[in-house]
Amino acid sequence: MKNMQGKNLRNIPSEKKNVPDLADDFLGAAHVFAAVMNNVLEEDLLRDAAGGRLTVSQMKLLKLIGMNDSTNVGDIAAFLKVSKAAASKAADKLVRKMYLRRSPGKLDRRESCLALTEMSRKFLSRDEKERGQKIKEIFSISVPAELRQVSALLDCLTARLAIENLSAQPGRLCLECGTYFRDNCSLRAQLGRQCFHLRKK
Is the pTM of this model over 0.85? Predict the structure, then answer.
């Protein structure tokens, strides 16, 4: 991986710091990276694509529903970590904007299922294309092998933190990755969590 001046990170002189200080530097860098990427890849792109018609939360909701053939209000409540009433209200807003449609549930007709409309499918497809181009530009300074190395390190640290600080609760529905829907997830492997987007496959 190279920095913005084109220097390879392996060639940057290492400072004489102890492990806690280096860990603080790493965690700080990871936190800032996540915050900036959230602004660039979610808020800025969404503002350009939707012209203020959708919030980041609504966009995530559309992506979630797009990953599943049938999504109900309970799924949305789990994803947004809100009550079913609040989830139903969030879904209704998208139905009124014609991004979602409701239909009776196959097993329980009292519980409606939510699906994308043609308009929202086209919107998500366009957003995915623009997002992919932006990611390509951002990571063009990176070497694939080193990206895999950093990802592996983050997964290792996540697993250690999870084992020590999170309740395993095997089988629990997990939404920690948001809308990135990782197929290789350290929490699934270490804690036996059930990934939302894989549960119906």
Answer: no
Q: Alpha carbon of 93 to those of 53, 112, 165: distances in Å? A: 11, 15, 37
Q: Give per-residue pLDDT as tens, 70-123.
A: 688 888 887 788 898 999 999 999 999 999 998 876 666 567 789 999 999 998
CA-CA distance, 30 to 24, in Å (whole number)? 10
Q: Catalogue all structural domains in the chain, each as residue range(s) with its CATH number.
A: 18-141 (1.10.10.10), 144-201 (no CATH)
Rounded to an integer, what distance in angstroms lies between the CA atom of residue 11 and that of residue 8? 6
Positive or negative torsion for Cα 55, 57, 59, 61: negative
Decide: helix, strand or coil at residue 2: strand
Phi, psi of 124 (to 5 degrees): -65, -35
**Residue 9 clears pLDDT 50, i.e. is over it:** no
